[in-house]
Amino acid sequence: GAGVSQSPSNKVTEKGKDVELRCDPISGHTALYWYRQSLGQGLEFLIYFQGNSAPDKSGLPSDRFSAERTGGSVSTLTIQRTQQEDSAVYLCASSLVEVAFFGQGTRLTVV
Amino acid sequence: GNSVTQMEGPVTLSEEAFLTINCTYTATGYPSLFWYVQYPGEGLQLLLKATKADDKGSNKGFEATYRKETTSFHLEKGSVQVSDSAVYFCALSGQKGYSTLTFGKGTMLLVSP
After folding, report:
1. Residues of A whose CB is below 8 A from B36
2. pLDDT for residue B100 is more than 80
3. Who contacts A93 (Cβ-Cβ below 8 Å, separation ≥6)?
């Protein structure tokens, strides 16, 4: 596609359930980022993939969060045993050199 | 580590007023600097960028100059429009394309007719 695609656009889940969020980056982009946007918290870095290098996971808030990127393309962010504080908009971005292009995000609500 | 500090909002202006949104940064090396904008109900999109000291990024009437001596990248526009109402994020990238992007907390701009 022409841009970064994220799915689902909205997700409501019960506390304690696992969720998977998907990101399709722009074709050919080697870098992929996940961020979390919470009200009043700005953009919080979660994880960064660059080519075949080991991902930078330094922003993951707990071991309930994990992400993978298969074949250097599609990425999945998984949150296990969701908590109410996980409610946020999860943004994915990809880049080739330095300008990051963002998807529309997945709004996650944990009830 | 890298960090970005933006002025807190909301910034409330009347149409045709002059806009400044302050942004300062802390970084090692020579970062590239960016302003991203998020219009209501839309995703983040790049507004402008500057890759080295004294560069001026510009787009849609907005400008920002990379000031290494003051570690700043303030966003300016001479005459704002209602359609400029959005949240503006200042960001930096470390080594070109090979590091995470660090964002400020965002500044909401509200422009009234």
Report:
1. 102
2. no
3. A4, A32, A33, A35, A100, A101, A102, A103, B44, B101
